[in-house]
Records
---
Amino acid sequence: ARGNPLYYFTDERLGWHRQFVSPINALLNTFSHPQSVLEVFSAAVGVSFIVWAARSREWGYAAYMGTALASLMTSTTYLSLPRILVSFFPIPLLLAAYVKERKLVGGALLAISGIVAAVGVVAFTHGLGFY
C-alpha cells in the first residue's frame, strides 16, 4: 500500500519511537523497564521454539517465528514479546505433536495451559494485560 515492503520499520519509528538496533543493545535497553524479566524470558521461549521447529525440519514455522521475533529483538527494547508468542500458531502444533503419544505429559501441559490462561484473564480484567 505504501510502495515500500519495509515501511513497517518506518511505522515502528514514527508510531512507537522504536528503531533498529543490535540485538545486544536491545537486550541491554530492555533491562531499564520493569517488565524486563518477562520480556527476556519470552525471548528465550520464542528462540527455543524456533530451534525446535528448525530441528523438526519445519522450515516455514521456523522462518515465520524467527522473522517476527527478530524484528522485535532488534528493536529499541524487547517490548511485546509475550504478546507475539500468542500469535505463534506453530507453538501449539509443535506441542501437540510432542504430546500425541505421551498422555501424562499432555495432561500436565493441558493443566499448565489452563492455569496460564486463567492468570491471563485475571490480569487482563484488572488492567494488567499481556501488553
---
Amino acid sequence: MRLAVVASRVSPMGGMERAAWELLGRLAESETCDITVLTEAYERMPPGVRWVPLQRRPAPALFQGWLFDRAVGRGQSSVPGALFNSVGVTTAPVHVITAHFCQRGFVEQCGALRGGGRALRRGYQAAVGRWENARERRAYAGRQLRAVIAVSQGIRRELIEYYHLPEERVVVIPNGVDHSTFHPLDDPEEKARLRRELRLPESSLLALFVGGDWDRKGLNDAILAVATLPDVALVVVGRGDVARFRATAQRSGADGRVIFAGLTPTPEKYLAAGDVYVFPSRYEAFPLSPLEAAASGLPVLAPRINGIEEWLEDGVNGLFIEHDPESIRAGLCRLRDDAAARYRLGQAASRTASRYTWEGVAREQLRLFESLSRLPS
C-alpha cells in the first residue's frame, strides 16, 4: 500500500504536530505500506519515510490555509496512486482526513475569537475564523473523501451535525501516549531533586498547566484560582503572551507563584515533578497533555469537554471542574488537603492512561487505510 500523509508540520513539539510525529514513527515500522509525507517541516524523520517538502510564501493567517492547500495540490503529483491522509483539513483532494479540531464546533461553543487585543485585532481574528469555517466545509465536501478519523466521540458528533457526514464514514480513533516517556515518579527524594533541577518550589503543591493558545485553554482562570492559595504554585509550560498573563498574576496577587517555564522539549520532567494537572480549557478535540499528565501519575482537573469526558472519572482519576476560578480553586484545595486521595487519584489516572498507546493508534489506522486502499477509485 502506498500511503501519503499530508501535514502542515511534523514535530515532537506541539499538539497536532506531535500527534502526527508520534504516529508516523510507528507507521514507519510497518512492512505493509510505503509512506510518503507531504509537509513543510519534519523533525527527526524515521528511516524509510520519504519526505516531499511543501513550500508556501509567508503571508497573514487569513491566507495561510489557502496557500497550504495549493502547496499540497502541487506536491500530490509526486505520489501517484497513493492513499492520501490529511492530518487536519485541506481542500486538496484526499481520501482520509484525521480531525484534530472542528472549527465550526469551536466557533459555535466559544465564538471565533482567540485572545484579547484591540477591536481591529478582534475583527481580524473573526475574519480568519469565518475563512477557516468555509475552508473546513469545503474539505469535508471533497469528492474523493472516503473516511474521516475523529480523535474523540465529541468531534465525531460535531462533524456529523455540522457537515452532515454519513455516520459510517466517521471513525473514532483517539490519540495515544508514549509511556516510555510519561510515567509516574513515586520516589519523593527523586521528585524533590527534579524540582531543584527545574528551579521549582519544593514545599508548595505544584499545579501544572501545559500547552499554548492560553485564552482558549483557560490559563486566566487557573491563575486567578491560585491567587488566594499561598501554598499552591502554578507552573505554565508552553508558549504564549507571557507579559499579559504575568500582569494578570500580579494584579490578582499570584505573582511569584505563577512560574512561566516556556516551551520545552522535555515536558515530562515538569509533569513528573508536579502534584496535580489543571486544564480548564473551553474547547478541545482530544488533548495530549492531560492524558500525558495522567500517565505521569497526576490527578487531572478538567471540564467536561471533547476527549476529556471519555476517560476522566470524577473522584476516580481526577476531578471535573467548571470554567471559573472558584471551581478550580475548590478542586485544588480538595487535593491539597488530602494527600492520600491525591495519590489514589494519580495512580488511577496512570492506569487509565495505560489504555491509550501510539502503537494501538497506529494499528487501528493502518487497518483502516488498508481497507480503504482496496476500494475502487
---
Amino acid sequence: MNPMHSIDLNCDLGEGCDNDAELMPLITSANIACGGHAGDANTMRATVKLALAHGVAIGAHPGYRDRENFGRRELPLPANEVHQLVLTQTRALQAIACECGGEVTHVKPHGALYNMAARDEVIAQAIAKAVHEAGPELVLYGLHGSKLIAAGRAVGLRVANEAFADRSYQPDGSLTPRSQHGAMIESAEAVAAQVRQMVCEGRVTTLDGASIPIAADTICIHGDGPYALEFAKVLNAMFRRQ
C-alpha cells in the first residue's frame, strides 16, 4: 500500500446550510454556489471572505437555475445555454472574489449538471469551453474517467479527478443515484475507510462489492449532508496524521 499523499479536501459551500463557518477551517478548497441552484451576491461575498480568512482555495460551483430541486434535477438545456450559465455564474464569483482581494482557482459543476457532464460529451464540452473562457488558468473538477475530465483536457485546462467521501459508487465508476438505497454513506468510519482506500490504493469498493480503479486528486464532502461536519473533522484529522 502506498502512503497517503497530500490531498485536496473540497466541500460545497455557500448553499444556505448554516455550517460554512465550522466547515471552512477543516477543508482546503471551497466550491461556492454562485447564484444558480443556490446563493446570491451576499452569500458569495460572505463565503469568499470566510475562505480567504482560512487560506482555503475559492472555487465556482455553477448549477442549473432550479432552486426548488436544489439543482439536482436534470434539465434538457441546449449546449449554448449550458455554456452561458456556467460562464455567467463563474464570472459572477470571479468579480466578487476580486473585490474581496482573492481569486477563483477552480470550477466544479453542481448536482445534475455535474452528473450529466460526466456521461454527455456535448454538455461536458460546453462546460469545459465556458470554464476556459472564464480563465484558462482555472482547474476543472470532474468525476474520474468522465466525459468532463476528457473535455477539460481537450481544451487545455488543468483537471482534477474528484472522488467522493460520502457517496457510493456503481461498477462503471458513476455515483449511485440518490434515489437508490445506499447512495449516501452515513458512517464516519465508512467514509474514512473509503477515502483511505481511494487515496492509498487507487481503488474503490462499489455498492455491490466490486473493486474498481479510481484516481483521487481531490476528495469531496457535500456541505449540505447531515453528517458533513463530522465527516470533515474525521478526514481532516486523518490527513493531518499522515
---
Amino acid sequence: MDEPNGLLAIGGDLSAERLLSAYHQGIFPWFDDHQPILWWSPNPRAVIFPDQLRITRSLRKSMRNRGYRVTFDTAFSAVISACQHTPRSDQNGTWITEEMVDAYTQLHYLGHAHSVECWHEEQLVGGLYGLSIGKLFFGESMFSIKTDASKVAFVTLAQRLQKAGFPLIDCQVPNSHLTSLGATDIPRKEFQHYLKNYLHYKFEPQQDPWHDITLYERPR
C-alpha cells in the first residue's frame, strides 16, 4: 500500500473500542514495526462503488474457468496471515504487524472484521479482510498466490454487498490493483457524507450479508 496523506495522530492503542471509534470518523491505523501507531485520514479517499465495479474480460474468464470458489468468514486467521506474509512486488516488508493481527482478529471475534476466501480445490489461493460497519465495508488488505484470486474474491464480495445495499467500499488509498477494479478518488467531505448516512444502519438477520458464514459461491 502506498503511504497515504492525511496523518492525523500518533500514539494510542489498537483496542477494539478505539479502532471502531476511528473507523466511524474515517480514520485508520497504518504503521511499521519500528514506528508508533499512526492514524490516517487521506484526502482524497480511494473507494469503489459496487455498482461501478470494473470486471475485465480476462478477469471474467478467470471467474468462469479457473475452478475458484469463494467463501466468507471461514478462514479469517489464515487470510490475515497470508496478507501479512505474501511478498508484494511494490512493497518492502509488511505494515501488518503482529499487533495489527491481534487487534483485527479481536474485531473478527466481535463480529466487525470479516474475511473473504478464494479457494482452488482445497488450497487457499487468495482473499481479503476488512471491517463491515452498517452499510459500509472498509477494506484492509488482499493477497493472491494464483492468477486473479484476490480479484475474484473482491468481485464476489462487491456483488454481495451491492445486493445488500452497500453504496461503497473504502479502499483507503489507490494502487494499480484496485484501480483495475474501478477504484476512484472522492474528497474527504464526500466520504464523510457516507459515514454519516450509512454507518448506523442495522440489518435484519436474514438481510445481513454476513449472516450465512458457511455459504460457498461460485464466481460468476
